[in-house]
């Protein structure tokens, strides 16, 4: 997924003016004919009599191309000298074709956070220093999880793990993420940079699959059969590119491959999605037949990062430090898509949760454009020169508060100089905001994160990008996004709120009648108005069914009911009848007033409240804690110092807490379905307590939720 070393790995090749001079022993760097006068070009003037070198060369485009009048890939400008490019030098002053300098996007528009695609690097599961499983990601903050990578067996064309060190069970772990966020879509990202590396057995696999109808169909069938996923992301790096083992026929065959995948997926009951990964550089993107490829995919993931790195030493731009992302170059890259009328809504823009690092040639020259001698020292965990993960950069800043990051406003990237001659560029909330505004102004339809597992334990990068406060890192799933919608989604899955009461009354002593069906389990029943021996079955998804539920309220012969869930329980259903199972002395008699509650143990309650505490009378929360709520209790504290507080480690997983219940007999002391009971008290935050007037009721108390 990350772009690595290669010719013209950024888009500057299209925007700069080449050195068009040449001579004996110094051929044209662009492959053109070296004319008698020592200048590069095409046609009889340069390639005819007196030509010094490359005399058989033909122009990329235009009059002296083969065939004559040939246009440039991706509808880029053909200059008067027969070169393809996008800057003023190419698109004006005698431009021969496609002479649009600044193309604008057209077609459907979206928002960059409409899709939030978090890539998961499968090797993160076996790290000893920053081990991350798919379930450790902030899953409720994502719309899509892309598992990177699956490989393709060169003989059977079946999807397999990328190496022997990656267990196949990791695919199952990724699929389990959907039990935490039921709306999450799991895509399998197939391929990657290393998969298509030169000299590997896997490099020709994509080309071989795409080359024949039989192979394409075999692969498509294998994908449909592969485990529990929602789609596939094809990361072929790169079709057609000669330096990556590509062949000219890859261009058309890639379209045929996606066509076969789409037809097979649409014909299957699974209805899988399709995306592909695209580079931001013209060098590689020119081999993508974008107008035909886009017909068969849900969207395109663009790698708008890794624009610069240590590989620049092989490029004409030279060994100078530059940010790995840059708004100006990102704009130029996206314009390649506008030139072939790809709608903005079909594009997801890449955000890198890492930085590219260099060793400065001169420690006194630290701004972009200064020379580097190589990659910076390896990170303590990533252990690779030239790159630092986001968690390593954040740790560096925390350990050295004296460091002063520099915000390059024009490029929308930050950089940091440390240890004298070390230089790294990275993004944070400030630069993410700039990039989001840029993307939304264009109408881009999504964002991809490479990679979600590279974030720190506080999810600083996710928070900065998404504008959330994702917290409570002690949760086993680490997925409580601090917004009402995301928290409610999580609680719904964890607390039995995906359960349902079937509409029909059934005879309870006939097992076949009380079956919930495939994928569901029975937790009990509600009496309803069904008559003796009959009831309405309560069914819950097997994957998220609570372990312990009970009907509360209406014990003994009481006619008035005030069902209240206990601490650590969540309200799932209300009923005037109740049902089974019931608390001791409970019944299935109809309530005259009020109702009974079906309460289930709140999922992850112990993790959620781990470290939380009530202060002493008049006490305060520590600086490292969040105040979740407070309580007035004159029975335990003096009237002048009767408040004490409920404190949780920051960031707290509990939010928007409130006391409910009003005088005189607290009929409304009940939590909503997207809330969980934390504590019971007859006063709550007020000095005046509830006075219970129905003697057979359980004690009426205010309830904090």
TrEMBL record:
Record's keyword annotation contains Disulfide bond: yes
Domain Chitin-binding type-1: residue ranges: 19-57, 58-101
PROSITE patterns found in the cross-reference section: CHIT_BIND_I_1, CHIT_BIND_I_2, GH18_2
InterPro entries cross-referenced by the UniProt entry: Chitin-bd_1, Chitin-binding_1_CS, Chitinase_II/V-like_cat, Chitinase_insertion_sf, Endochitinase-like_sf, GH, Glyco_hydro18_cat, LysM12-like
Domain GH18: 114-469
Record-listed E.C. numbers: 3.2.1.14
Enzyme class: hydrolase
Protein name: chitinase
Lineage: Eukaryota, Fungi, Dikarya, Ascomycota, Pezizomycotina
